[in-house]
């Protein structure tokens, strides 16, 4: 249980807040590479800041404050120009990826000698492409390494899925360190949805082990023991705002009451032949059932979303009753609280990587069989995580599956 003041301290990430300073010490995924290939300008909102992301004609990415330094028009309605830069649609001022003003059409005619453009600059932030995603860093310098996890390089069919969740990011991330929910929110709920009165194997023990980039959570269920990878390896609550189980789920704060769920998935490609994916597809998954107006519950992450939004737009943690299953949640809150003091003293918080020589295919703990609980029952395996996978993605994967000699059935 937290007091309302402690709750405010931990969940608010707007500019100038303590937790906002802490979360700005990390890279956050904000878009897919493919999105900017399809449309080179995108409005982004990150931790309460309105930004514009763009790809110029040379292929360089820029991330600027959303409002034009001239008279504050919305730069996400601008366009990229053939000879470089992002053009504001209001009076045509032009900005490069560093935020420099490189064109002011009327000012240059009226007062060419004044070089007014050299006196104007849009605030620019850092952006990098990795694993089919575009990552933003909007914090203080020096800029840390953008983690290069080994999983990004594995052979398989990758895809990126976004959903916008109308609640605070912290309650989403607390779900990344919560082993017992799996039994109820996913396994037993799915059994009930199929009309079964059975119960899935119950948890008999849970454990939490800290490591450099997060906390592993471990479990023993009625059908497993200490020799099982569920206990020896476990799953990863990845710092500061992700879950890693073989796929990644980031909970990116849009603002204090909205979170961008970013899922990065990799499906098996059969056989051993080399496979290179030319383009990682991306799609947006809905969360509301249009017919009933209720949240969608048919897919695994949708079930998680229901738990998160059900806690309110911001969870009132002073009304909680934490038990033994919540030890990981308590560890997570303590780590964030401790790191607020660490950055106050000029240190780096948990999970920040500075050593570039280490940042090459860094391993994360993973149960090698993949996602265990979701052993495929149909071939090619269906996508169980989020609703409304586009037909084009299904077809592309199924075609590759067949081309590479995968089994079909049942
Ligand atoms: S407001 Fe952008 S050019 Fe005038
Ligand atoms: Fe879950």
Tally of DSSP β-strands: 18
H/I helix tally? 10
What order do the helices and strands follow?
HHEHEEEEEEEHEEEHHEEHEEEEEHHH
The tally of domains stands at 2
Q: Measure the end-to-end span.
A: 48 Å
Bound ligand species: FE2/S2 (inorganic) cluster, fe (ii) ion
Question: Over the alpha carbons, how many angstroms does the gyration radius reach?
Answer: 23 Å
Task: Tell me about the largest β-sheet.
Answer: 8 strands, mixed
Mean pLDDT: 96
Residue stretches low in confidence (pLDDT < 50, at least 5 long) are none
Roughly what percent helix?
Answer: 10-25%
Structural class: alpha+beta
Query: What is the strand arrangement across the widest sheet?
Result: 12-13-14-15-16-17-11-18
Shape type: globular
The share of residues in extended strands comes to 15-25%
Describe the structure.
- The protein has 410 residues and is an alpha+beta fold.
- It has two domains: 27-137, Rieske Iron-sulfur Protein, CATH 2.102.10; 150-403, no CATH class.
- It contains ten helices and 18 strands.
- The chain has helices at residues 4-11, 18-23, 33-38, 105-110, 169-174, 180-193, 229-232, 300-310, 327-344, 391-403, and strands spanning 28-32, 41-46, 49-55, 61-65, 79-80, 86-87, 94-95, 101-103, 124-130, 133-137, 157-165, 203-211, 214-221, 235-238, 242-244, 248-255, 258-267, 282-284.
- The strands form three sheets. An eight-stranded mixed β-sheet has the order 12-13-14-15-16-17-11-18. A six-stranded antiparallel β-sheet has the order 1-10-9-4-3-2. A four-stranded antiparallel β-sheet has the order 5-6-7-8, with no helix packed on it.
- Bound molecules: FE2/S2 (inorganic) cluster and fe (ii) ion.
- FE2/S2 (inorganic) cluster binds at residues 68, 70-71, 73, 88, 90-93.
């Amino acid at each position: 249980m937290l007091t309302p003041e402690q709750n405010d301290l931990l969940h608010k990430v707007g500019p100038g807040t303590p937790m906002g300073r802490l979360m700005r010490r990390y890279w956050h995924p904000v878009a897919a590479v493919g999105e900017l290939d399809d449309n080179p300008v995108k409005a982004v909102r990150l931790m309460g800041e309105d930004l514009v992301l763009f790809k110029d004609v040379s292929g360089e990415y820029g991330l600027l404050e959303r409002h034009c330094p001239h008279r504050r028009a919305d730069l996400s309605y601008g366009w990229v120009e053939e000879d470089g830069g992002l053009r504001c649609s209001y009076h045509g001022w032009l900005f490069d990826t560093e935020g420099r003003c490189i064109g002011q059409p009327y000012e240059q005619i009226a007062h060419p000698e004044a070089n007014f453009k050299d006196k104007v600059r849009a605030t620019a932030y850092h952006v990098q492409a990795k694993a089919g995603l575009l990552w933003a860093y909007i914090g203080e310098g020096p800029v840390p390494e953008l983690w290069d996890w080994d999983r990004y390089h594995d052979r398989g069919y990758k895809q990126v899925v976004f959903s916008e969740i109308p609640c605070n990011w912290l309650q989403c991330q607390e779900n990344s360190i919560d082993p017992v929910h799996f039994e109820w929110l996913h396994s037993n709920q799915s059994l009930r949805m199929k009309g079964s009165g059975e119960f899935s194997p119950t948890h008999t023990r849970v454990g939490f082990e800290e490591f450099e980039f997060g906390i592993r959570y471990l479990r023993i269920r009625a059908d497993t023991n200490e020799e099982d990878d569920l206990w020896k390896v476990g799953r990863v609550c990845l710092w500061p705002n992700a879950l890693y189980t073989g796929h990644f789920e980031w909970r990116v704060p849009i603002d204090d009451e909205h979170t961008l769920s970013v899922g990065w998935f990799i499906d098996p490609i059969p056989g051993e032949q080399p496979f290179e994916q030319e383009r990682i597809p991306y799609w947006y998954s809905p969360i509301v059932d249009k017919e009933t107006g209720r949240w969608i519950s048919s897919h695994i992450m949708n079930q998680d979303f229901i738990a998160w939004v059900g806690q309110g737009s911001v969870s009132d943690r002073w009304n909680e009753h934490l038990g033994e299953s919540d030890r990981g949640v308590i560890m997570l809150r303590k780590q964030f609280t401790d790191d607020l003091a660490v950055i106050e003293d000029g240190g780096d918080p948990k999970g920040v990587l500075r050593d570039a020589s280490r940042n090459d295919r860094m391993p994360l703990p993973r149960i090698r069989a993949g996602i265990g609980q979701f052993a495929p029952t149909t071939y090619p395996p269906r996508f169980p995580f989020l609703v409304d996978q586009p037909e084009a993605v299904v077809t592309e994967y199924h075609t590759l599956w067949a081309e590479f000699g995968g089994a079909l059935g049942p």
